[in-house]
Amino acid sequence: MKLIIDSNSQNEAFARTVVAAYITRLDPTLEELADVKTAVSEAVTNSILHGYNNGEGEIEIICEIKGQDIMVEITDHGVGIPDIEKAMEPLYTTKPEWERSGMGFAFMEAFMDELEVYSEVGKGTRVKLSKHIGDRT
Amino acid sequence: MIILNQKEQEAIHYEIQQNCLIIYISQDLDHHTVNLLREQSDRLIDAGDIRHIIFDFRENDFMDSSGIGLIMGRYKRVMFRGGKAAVTNVGKEIERIFNLSGLFQIIERYGTPEQAVAGLNAKREK
Question: What pLDDT sits at residue B9?
Answer without folding.
Answer: 63
